[in-house]
């Protein structure tokens, strides 16, 4: 079977299974790179693909500057592709399963208080000078990400009908499209209420979606990433990437160093597996020690 036909069959299967458009696009880009690599190396038929081709492609990606995390993500997509082919009887084995993942650094960068103040200060200054929707939206995006730990796709799809300013909750459709409830603080609810009033005045008609483009249409994956790419250039932070996921990590980080239990953090982050949560808690263990050394009750007792 031609490799390009197997690839298309795999994509059609993902669409049939109602995989999100975001994931399908990821497969097209990340897995598509491997398909192109094989064809460039005269591997046209599915039966010709060997372990060496998978390793060769990943080494090629490494030479192009791909990080270990990116390479592991690409390997994961290739494995999923061959798992499907084996299940459908189009391949005898998953050649990608014999390729080991790369070791990655366990440190995950998060924002400092100073960096958060800088980003919020940038948008506050813009709001005072321009009173533009761009400034109000950017400020509100940061506050919502930091106050809830929501994912990028969840915030894009957030509707005003999902926001309950009275009971301080919002509903999002998380991973596996499961509807989940997130609790808001009164501070976040107050900010959202003011933002809602601004949107009504600015657009004359309130969109169904909380965060929209300048033409009052729903934001896309690309448009929200452009917001943070612009913010990255303005801030020029050297040690941390300005992205929605960094805000989510920062939210989790603050929960961990506050002393919240792993079980409670799992519920707040909506991790399906508590092993993911304990990984974060263990990662920030040194900071927990520092917090304990600083705030331990014995510090102020004469014992």
TrEMBL record:
<dbReference type="InterPro" id="IPR050090">
    <property type="entry name" value="Tyrosine_recombinase_XerCD"/>
</dbReference>
<dbReference type="Pfam" id="PF13102">
    <property type="entry name" value="Phage_int_SAM_5"/>
</dbReference>
<dbReference type="InterPro" id="IPR010998">
    <property type="entry name" value="Integrase_recombinase_N"/>
</dbReference>
<feature type="domain" description="Tyr recombinase">
    <location>
        <begin position="106"/>
        <end position="293"/>
    </location>
</feature>
<keyword id="KW-0238">DNA-binding</keyword>
<protein>
    <submittedName>
        <fullName>Tyrosine-type recombinase/integrase</fullName>
    </submittedName>
</protein>
<comment type="similarity">
    <text>Belongs to the 'phage' integrase family.</text>
</comment>
<dbReference type="Pfam" id="PF00589">
    <property type="entry name" value="Phage_integrase"/>
</dbReference>
<dbReference type="InterPro" id="IPR044068">
    <property type="entry name" value="CB"/>
</dbReference>
<keyword id="KW-0233">DNA recombination</keyword>
<feature type="domain" description="Core-binding (CB)">
    <location>
        <begin position="1"/>
        <end position="86"/>
    </location>
</feature>
<dbReference type="InterPro" id="IPR025269">
    <property type="entry name" value="SAM-like_dom"/>
</dbReference>
<dbReference type="InterPro" id="IPR011010">
    <property type="entry name" value="DNA_brk_join_enz"/>
</dbReference>
<dbReference type="InterPro" id="IPR013762">
    <property type="entry name" value="Integrase-like_cat_sf"/>
</dbReference>
<dbReference type="InterPro" id="IPR002104">
    <property type="entry name" value="Integrase_catalytic"/>
</dbReference>
């Amino acid at each position: 079977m031609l490799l390009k036909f197997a690839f298309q069959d795999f994509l059609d299967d993902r669409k049939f299974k109602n995989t999100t458009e975001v994931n399908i696009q990821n497969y097209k880009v990340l897995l598509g790179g491997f398909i192109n690599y094989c064809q460039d190396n005269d591997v046209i038929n599915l039966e010709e693909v060997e372990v060496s081709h998978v390793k060769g492609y990943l080494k090629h990606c490494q030479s192009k500057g791909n990080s270990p995390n990116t390479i592991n993500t690409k390997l994961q997509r290739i494995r999923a592709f061959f798992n499907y082919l084996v299940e459908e009887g189009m391949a005898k084995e998953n050649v990608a399963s014999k390729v080991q993942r790369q070791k990655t650094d366990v440190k995950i960068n998060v924002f400092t208080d100073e960096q958060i103040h800088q980003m919020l200060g940038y948008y506050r200054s813009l709001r005072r000078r321009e009173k533009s929707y761009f400034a109000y939206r950017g400020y509100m995006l940061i506050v919502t990400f930091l106050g809830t730990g929501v994912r990028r796709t969840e915030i894009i799809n957030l509707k005003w009908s999902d926001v309950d300013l009275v009971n301080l909750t919002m509903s999002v459709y998380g991973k596996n499209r499961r509807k989940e409830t997130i609790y808001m603080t009164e501070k976040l609810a107050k900010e959202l209420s003011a933002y809602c009033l601004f949107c009504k005045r600015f657009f004359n008609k309130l969109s169904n979606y909380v965060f929209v483009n300048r033409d009052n249409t729903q934001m896309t994956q690309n448009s929200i990433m452009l917001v943070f790419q612009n913010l990255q250039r303005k801030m020029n932070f050297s040690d941390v990437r300005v992205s929605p996921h960094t805000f989510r990590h920062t939210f989790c980080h603050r929960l961990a160093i506050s002393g919240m239990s792993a079980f409670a953090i799992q519920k707040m982050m909506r991790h399906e597996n508590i092993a993911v949560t304990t990984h974060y808690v263990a990662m920030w263990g040194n900071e927990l020690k520092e917090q304990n050394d600083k705030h331990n009750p014995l510090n102020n007792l004469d014992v």
